[in-house]
Design goal:
The complex is a heterodimer of chains A (146) and B (80). Chain A is an alpha+beta fold and 146 residues long. Chain A contains four helices and nine strands, in the order E-H-E-E-E-H-E-E-E-H-E-E-H. Chain A has a single domain, classed as Aldehyde Oxidoreductase, domain 3 (Alpha-Beta Complex). Chain B has a single domain, classed as Ubiquitin-like (UB roll), CATH 3.10.20.30. The longest helix of chain B has 12 residues. Classes of the chains: A alpha+beta (146), B alpha+beta (80).
Chain lengths: 146, 80
C-alpha cells in the first residue's frame, strides 16, 4: 500500500499495521529533512506531488517488489507540502519471513520510489533563495536499478 | 492539427508561468510536445532527464499523440 500525506508521518502507527505472525523480519527506512544540501543551508522543503500517478506508479512498484521478494508485505508513505528540518519526508516499511529479503526489499522500494514517482522537491535556503532539486544522483542511480 | 492540453509541474510550471494550456499542435509524438514546449517556454532540462504521461498513464517519448490528449510533462523527479 502507498499513500501521500499532507500531515506528519507516524512511523510507530505504520509499523503496527505490518505486524504479521508469518513475518520473521521487519525493516524500515525513514527519509528526514536535513539542514544542508549541496553547500547550502536549508531551512525547509516543499514537496509537490502529482498524486494520481504517484499512487498508481507506487502500486506498480510495490507489486514489482512483491514479485522480486515473495512473501513480502510493504507499505510506504510520502509527504506532500511544506516540511521543516527533521520532519520525516518518506517512510518505507516491509516485512518478510527472513531478514535478507527485508533489507533488500526496503532498499529496492526506496531507491525506485525516488526515481519513478512524480514528486518534486523545492528547497528554501537561509539566504532567502529557493530551488528545485535536480536529483542527478538519482538519475545516475536509475541506470543501475533499472 | 490536433487540440491537446499540456500540463506543467514544478520547475516547468514556474518556467512557463502557467500550469495548464490547451493548444493546436501538429505533434506526432510526446517528444514533439516536449520540444515545442522548450521552444515556447524555455527549458534547459534534457529530455532524457524528464518523464511524460498521457491521459494519466506514464508514457514513453515516442508515444503517439492523438486529438484531445492531455500530456503531462514532468521535470526531473526528486522524491524522498
Amino acid at each position: 500500500m502507498i499513500s501521500i500525506s499532507s500531515s506528519a508521518i507516524d512511523p510507530e502507527a505504520l509499523r503496527a499495521r505490518l505486524i504479521d505472525p508469518a513475518a520473521g523480519a521487519y525493516c524500515s527506512f525513514e527519509g528526514w529533512v536535513r539542514n544542508r544540501n549541496e553547500g547550502e543551508d536549508v531551512v525547509r522543503l516543499e514537496y509537490e506531488v502529482y498524486e494520481p500517478l504517484a499512487i498508481s506508479e507506487g502500486r506498480k512498484l510495490l507489486a514489482e517488489a512483491g514479485v522480486r521478494f515473495p512473501h513480502l508485505h510493504a507499505h510506504c508513505v510520502h509527504r506532500a507540502g511544506l516540511l521543516e528540518i527533521g520532519d520525516c519526508a518518506v517512510w518505507v516499511g516491509v516485512t518478510s519471513p527472513h531478514r535478507d529479503e527485508a533489507f533488500q526489499a526496503c532498499r529496492y522500494i526506496i531507491d525506485a520510489l525516488k526515481i519513478r514517482l512524480p514528486i518534486w522537491k523545492k528547497e528554501y535556503y537561509v539566504s532567502g533563495d529557493s530551488g528545485w532539486v535536480n536529483c542527478e544522483r538519482c538519475s545516475a542511480h536509475a541506470h543501475s536499478v533499472a | 492539427m490536433k487540440e491537446i492540453t499540456v500540463r506543467y509541474f514544478a520547475m516547468f510550471r514556474e518556467n512557463a508561468g502557467l500550469s495548464v494550456e490547451t493548444l493546436q499542435s501538429d505533434a506526432v509524438t510526446a517528444a514533439d510536445v516536449f520540444k515545442a514546449t522548450v521552444s515556447r517556454h524555455g527549458s534547459t532540462e534534457p529530455l532524457g532527464h524528464c518523464k511524460v504521461a498521457i491521459n494519466d498513464v506514464m508514457a514513453s517519448w515516442d508515444s503517439p499523440i492523438s486529438d484531445g490528449d492531455v500530456v503531462l510533462l514532468f521535470p526531473p523527479v526528486a522524491g524522498g
